[in-house]
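Methods — Computational structure assignment.
A single polypeptide chain was analysed. Its primary sequence is given first, followed by the predicted tertiary structure written as C-alpha cells.
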Amino acid sequence: RINTKSSFQRYDVILLLNGLPLVQIELKTLQVSPRKAMQQIVDYKNDPGNGYTNSLLCFMQLFIVSNRSNTWYFANNTSEHFRFDADEHFLPLYQWAAPDNKKITHLDDFAEAFLAKCTLAEMISRYTVLIQSERKLMMMRPYQIYAVQAIVDCIQQNRGNGYIWHTTGSGKTLTSFKASTLLKDNPDIEKCLFVVDRKDLDRQTRQEFNRFQPGCVEENTNTET
C-alpha cells in the first residue's frame, strides 16, 4: 500500500529494477475485462496526492494489465498523453508477440517472454523512445523491436544488405531512428547515412527524427559532401 497525505491505494504487483519501481501490474479475474484495470490505473493517477508524484512511483515507466487470458502493456506518461478515448480504448496499447508475429496474450506465456530480467530491462532502456519535443514516452511495437535487432545484428556480423518492408504508418521511421541510435554504440560506426530518392521523404524523415530528438540529424543537399 502507498500512503500519501490524501491517497491510500493498494497496487497488485510492482516490479523493481535495480531498486527502483519501474513496472506496475494490475490483475483481474478471467471474467473481468483488462480495460477495468486500465481505468483503475487512470483513476490512481488522477487521485489527488497520488503516489506517482509524491513517492518513488514517479520513476514508473511501464504498466501491464491482465485478466490472465488477455495481457496488455503501455507506457506511463503525463496526463496529457494518458487517457481513454470515447470508445474506451487506451492508446497507445500493445500486446506482445513472437518473432513470427503470433500474439502472446496469456499471462503465464507473457511473463516468461516479456518479464525475463534482461528482456524487461531492454524494453525499458533500449526500446522505449522519449519523444523529447512532446515529453512523451512511447513503447516500440514487437515487430519494430525485431526489425531493429535484425538490423543491428546484420551490421555487427557484417552480413551484407537487407530490407524491411511495411505499410504506411507502421513506424518505419521510428525503427530506423532507433536502429541508428543503437548503432552509435558501435565504435566501428562513425556515422549513419540516410539516402532518399525525393525531397518530401527527406523532409519527412528529418522532421520525425528531430521530433524524437531535436538536432539529431543533419541535412545535406550536396551529394559530394
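Note: Strands lie at 2-3, 8-9, 13-17, 20-27, 62-66, 71-75, 96-97, 103-104, 128-131, 136-139.
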